[in-house]
Amino acid sequence: MIFDILTLLPEACTAYLKASILGRAQKAGLIEVRLTNIRDFAFDRHRTVDDAPYGGGNGMVMKVEPLVAALESLPGQPRPRIVLMAPQGQPFTQALAAELAGLDRLVIICGRYEGIDERVRQLAVDQEISLGDFVLSGGELPALAVVDAVSRLIPGVLGGECSAAADSFSDGLLEHPHYTRPPEFRGLTVPEVLTSGNHAAIERWRRKESLRRTLRKRPELLQQACLDPEDEKLLFEIRGEIAEIEPG
Ligand code: SAH
């Protein structure tokens, strides 16, 4: 999959893209991430990319011409999906990451200042994506978050093919707890079942803890999750255990 990130701060993206999983995925040719500096498409002597808002007010607005020129400089066929990172966009979720992972190409526009001239939206943007209900100084972190979450879902990017499938949200639930050595630390031990070698029991424990965490931390996710009769049984047990600890 090919990602194009359009930004005024390509240098803010490079270190993260080179590190660890994303770096390896690019070396292996599983993904390609191209950074385009929007400033390279400014047309005046001063390479201006922002200007004061019509109507007055605080802050600057990213100009339409350099952004559209940057978009038009990208290979055009077949036309890639163009997304804008914006706090007003559709909240980014694992389900959206999975949908984007099915594309061959994705173009991501990072805003800065007060945001972009509205006409870029009208002319080119297919979708706006938000990282959450907060405002950052630029779209670079959100864009990297999208590239990261989407890349993890591309076959081969993660070492174990199954690791992404077990992640939180992939089946609508939060993930179970993890432990690694040592077996005891400051009096805290590892649940016995995990060292039992009984794979069926381990799977059952993990599923139950996954359900327990989701019930405790994000109960609303259970409404949407795909639960089978075995899950319902585990939830019944969990509710019983909770009632024992917190009667009434
Ligand atoms: N004035 C704008 C915010 C501008 S923040 C507003 O009120 O909506 C500058 C840029 O940072 C935005 O153009 C966007 O690209 C990016 N950005 C900030 N917060 C974001 C978020 N939560 N999700 C995605 N992008 C965000």
Automatic annotation (TrEMBL):
Enzyme class: transferase
GO BP terms: tRNA N1-guanine methylation
Residues annotated to bind S-adenosyl-L-methionine: 111, 131-136
Gene Ontology molecular function: any one: tRNA (guanine(37)-N1)-methyltransferase activity
Entry GO terms, CC: cytosol
Family from the record: Belongs to the RNA methyltransferase TrmD family.
Subunit structure: Homodimer.
Record function comment: Specifically methylates guanosine-37 in various tRNAs.
Protein name: tRNA (guanine-N(1)-)-methyltransferase
Organism (species): Desulfoferula mesophila
